[in-house]
């Protein structure tokens, strides 16, 4: 067996307090894809209301908020942006995104199991054009 010389996961041998860095966007994306691959861990939490999306907290791990959102058919959000860093993935159903930027207005359907990064001045709106509910998973850092 080869010793782990990097000391990952160990206390500093000199008694120093090591500062934790927030996860990178790539680490948030990996966490969402891992969660999406294990629907047995979160599917029972999904709630389906016909009048508005339902956001359900899955947990908080290492300063990262995890939640899922169910989107009823025909629902549309207002245009908004995100103050903190957030990633999301559509796991089932249909969602379409409208983005407003300096280049103009664009619209496109979102694809399942593709991670989207939100934050800063990403102004957008979402709509569920499909006949059934859509489900998204999210991971975010506090603003």
UniProtKB/TrEMBL annotation:
SUPFAM superfamilies: RmlC-like cupins. One of its GO terms (molecular function) is iron ion binding. Gene3D superfamilies: Jelly Rolls. Belongs to the cysteine dioxygenase family. This is Cysteine dioxygenase. It comes from Actinomadura macrotermitis.
């Amino acid at each position: 067996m080869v010793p782990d010389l990097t000391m990952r996961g160990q206390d500093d041998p000199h008694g120093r307090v090591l500062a934790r860095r927030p996860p990178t966007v790539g680490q948030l994306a990996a966490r969402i894809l891992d969660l999406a691959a294990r629907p047995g861990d979160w599917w029972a939490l999904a709630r389906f209301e016909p009048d508005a999306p339902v956001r359900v907290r899955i947990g908080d791990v290492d300063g990262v908020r995890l939640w899922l959102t169910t989107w009823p058919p025909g629902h549309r959000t207002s245009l908004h942006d995100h103050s903190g860093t957030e990633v999301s993935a559509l796991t089932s159903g249909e969602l379409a995104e409208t983005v407003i930027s300096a280049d103009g207005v664009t619209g496109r359907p979102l694809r399942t199991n593709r991670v989207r990064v939100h934050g800063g001045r990403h102004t957008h709106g979402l709509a569920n054009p499909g006949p059934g509910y859509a489900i998204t998973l999210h991971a975010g850092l506090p603003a």
